[in-house]
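Internal ticket - ligand job 285, zinc ion:
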Amino acid sequence: MKTYSKIPSGERLQSILCPLCGSGEDKHKLLYTYDLYSFKKCSGCSLVFQNPQPLFPDLSQRYDEDYFKYEIENEDSFFSLMMMALSDIGFESLDFSPFKKLRILDIGCATGRFLFEFRNRDWETAGIEICSGAVEYGNKKRGVNIHNCTLEEAHFPEKSFSVVHASHLIEHLNDPASFLGEIYRILDDRGFLIIVTPNIDSLQGFLFRSGWRSAIADHLFLYSLKTLEKICIKYGFHLIRKKTWGGLAKGLAPPAVKKILDIVAKKTGTGDVMVMLFQKTAEMQ
Ligand SMILES: [Zn+2]
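stdout (C-alpha cells):
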C-alpha cells in the first residue's frame, strides 16, 4: 500500500548533484520511475534519489489541508511507532547528564503529539512543521512551541537542543546537506540525533522495487543503513545504534507469513523502516 501522496501538475523540476559524493548526472543511473518521477542510484556512493526533483516552493504546496487531515487521522498510530523506535534504540538508557537542560526539537512534528509526550516529562520542546493547519492545531491544543517554517528558516541559536528527532522527514527534503549542517550547529556538544526513514536495502525494497510502499513521489531520497550513516558522518555525527523493522506490509501475505518475515527482517537489518541514533562528534572531521 502506498502512503499519502498528492502530486500537483506543473511542478518545476531541478537537477541536483549527489549530496553525498558530489557526482553529476552522468553518474546517476535510472533505478525505476514512479508516476512522473525518476529514482536514480549514484554509481559513486549508492545513494538513491529523484533526479530531477521538484523545487521546494512547489513541493511545499503538497503539505496542505488534506495532508493535515491525513496527519490527524493517523496521529495515534504514528505516535505509537515513534515510541517503539525510541525503545528500539534504548532511548531511556542514554546518558543525558552532560546537558544543563533537557531540550528536544522534533522536525516535521505534524500535530505535536510526540512533543506533548516530552512536555509531560518536563522537557523544553520545540517543533518544526510546514503544514500550517498542523501547526495551528498543535500549538493551540498542546502548547508545544511549533514553528511554521523550515528548519533553516527558524534560525535557532547554536547549541539549543540536547536531542533532535526527525521521523519520516529526511526523505522528503531537497537538501539533506543543509539540513544536517544546521542540526550540527543547533545541537549541544554530545547531543543526540534520531532519524527514522524508509530503508531501501530491505526485503520489501528489493522485492517490490517501484511498487514498494516507500517509492513514492513525496520521497525525494531513499536511504539505506549505509548511505544514511555515510551522509551523517560527513556532516559531523557518529552512529550509536541502529535498528530496522517491517518485513512485509499488512495484507500482502497471510498473518502467519507476515509475522515470520517481520521477525527475520528485524533480526537481519532488512526491515523497510529504519531508526538510527547518532551523536554529534566533538570536532568536524
Ligand atoms: Zn553519490
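Auto-summary: DSSP finds ten helices and 13 strands in the chain. The longest strand covers residues 187-198.
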